[in-house]
Amino acid sequence: MPLNVFEVTLYAMVMAGGTQPLTCSRQDATESLVMCTNGIVARQDEKGNIRYSNGVTVTKTADGNPSFSNGIQSHWGSAGWVQFTNDVAVRRNPDATFKNSKGLVCRMLSEEKSTCQKG
After folding, report:
1. pLDDT tens-digit profile of 27-65?
2. Is the pLDDT of residue 76 over 90?
3. CA atoms within 13 A on the CB side of 46
4. Listed residue (90, 92, 93) closest to 101, CA to CA
5. What is the pTM (predicted TM-score) of this model?
6. Cα separation of 10 and 95, whole Å?
7. How far, in Å, CA of 79 to CA of 59, rounded?
C-alpha cells in the first residue's frame, strides 16, 4: 500500500510543533518516499510504519492512534480535537481539511501532495 502523503504531512507538522507551514510531496516513481519542504523525508518500512529522516518512527496503537518513537502520544480531547503531548491539537473540519491549535490548516492537494499553511 502506498505511503499516505496527507498522513505524512500531518505527523510532520505535529513533530515540528505545529507553527511552521510545510508541503509534502510523493517523489516521482515511488510509492514509499515523501519529501517535505521543512527538510523531512519519510519512508514506509516493511511493517507499514512511517520512518522520518529525523529518526522518528510513527506507528499505530491498537486503538488506531499514532504513537511517535520520540515520545509524542495522542488522545481525544474536548470538542473533537486530537491532543498531542507536545501541545499541538488537531481537528477535522467539515470540508475535510484539518486545523491545528497553532493556526495552520492542512489539506490534501492531490494523492501526491499535501500542505499545512496559515489559516
Report:
1. 877 788 999 999 999 999 989 899 999 999 999 888 888
2. no
3. 0
4. 90
5. 0.93
6. 16
7. 25
